[in-house]
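Sequence, please.
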């Protein structure tokens, strides 16, 4: 087994107040860089539907696509814990199907855990997958697979409901919970109220850890960026200018030069 960061380690980090750093990745070369940078958790997010496949939501992503991308990332990661994101309709319809699909992430793709969206409404599924010895990370607040039910990608502010969701997923056996699109003061209360690590995205600074989407952080696409994203660099601009230079050098005859010829 390659992953060195374990569920136990993440619990210890929460206890010691050490921040957990998580990031998404979808392919081998980026996963190598992410792993080498010291990131503790790599999520193969179904966000790949939007940042890799060009879809306008995560809903079209399939189990087979998730398995393919998770395998690429798992091969690359020597230290980070690998979490496979269960796509829309891979766990909602039937608990048995959910266990089978969660198992595919472990058996076929090399993940150490799975993530699924939902709170109190998915406790039976979390219990069943955990009973099959597969660690489950829950995901509450703004859950992108419920985009149509939420009426868009909206910040979630119902404190009572969010606290209840967090407590319920902990009771069901989730080892961690992603808090997405939640006001900072509510995330702080949730983080204090439960003993499993909270990983925030658009949920303020007091979560036990943070996660971002790789392509947002690196500036790899020109979609609108949410308020919570910090773009640390703009690899998109760098790539565009390199590509333009290639076009112009081929057209002008500057490339290939003598040093590129046999
Ligand atoms: O799909 C994803 O990348 C996610 C993270 C943003 C938490 O669910």
């Amino acid at each position: 087994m390659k992953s060195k960061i374990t569920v136990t380690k993440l619990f210890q980090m929460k206890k010691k107040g050490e921040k957990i750093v998580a990031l998404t990745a979808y392919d081998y070369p980026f996963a190598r860089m992410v792993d080498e940078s010291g990131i503790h958790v790599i999520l193969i997010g179904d966000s790949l539907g939007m940042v890799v496949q060009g879809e306008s939501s995560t809903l079209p992503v399939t189990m087979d696509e998730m398995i393919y991308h998770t395998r690429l990332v798992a091969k690359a990661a020597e230290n980070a814990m690998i979490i496979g994101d269960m796509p829309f309709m891979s766990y909602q319809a039937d608990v048995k199907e959910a266990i089978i699909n969660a198992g595919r992430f472990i058996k076929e793709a090399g993940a150490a855990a799975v993530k699924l969206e939902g709170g109190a409404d998915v406790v039976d599924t979390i219990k069943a997958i955990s009973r099959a010895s597969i660690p489950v990370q829950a995901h509450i607040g703004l859950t992108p697979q419920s985009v149509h039910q939420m009426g868009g990608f909206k910040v979630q502010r119902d404190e009572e409901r969010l606290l209840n969701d967090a407590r319920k997923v902990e009771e069901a056996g989730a080892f961690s919970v992603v808090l997405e699109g939640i006001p900072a003061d509510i995330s702080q209360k949730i983080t204090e109220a439960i003993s499993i690590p909270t990983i925030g995205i658009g949920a303020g600074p007091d979560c036990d850890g943070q996660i971002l989407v790789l392509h947002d952080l690196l500036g790899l696409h020109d979609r609108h960026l949410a308020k919570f994203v910090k773009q640390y660099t703009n690899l998109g601009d760098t790539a565009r200018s390199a590509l333009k230079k290639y076009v112009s050098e081929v057209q002008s005859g500057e490339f290939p030069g003598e040093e590129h010829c046999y």
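The two ends are 44 Å apart (CA to CA).
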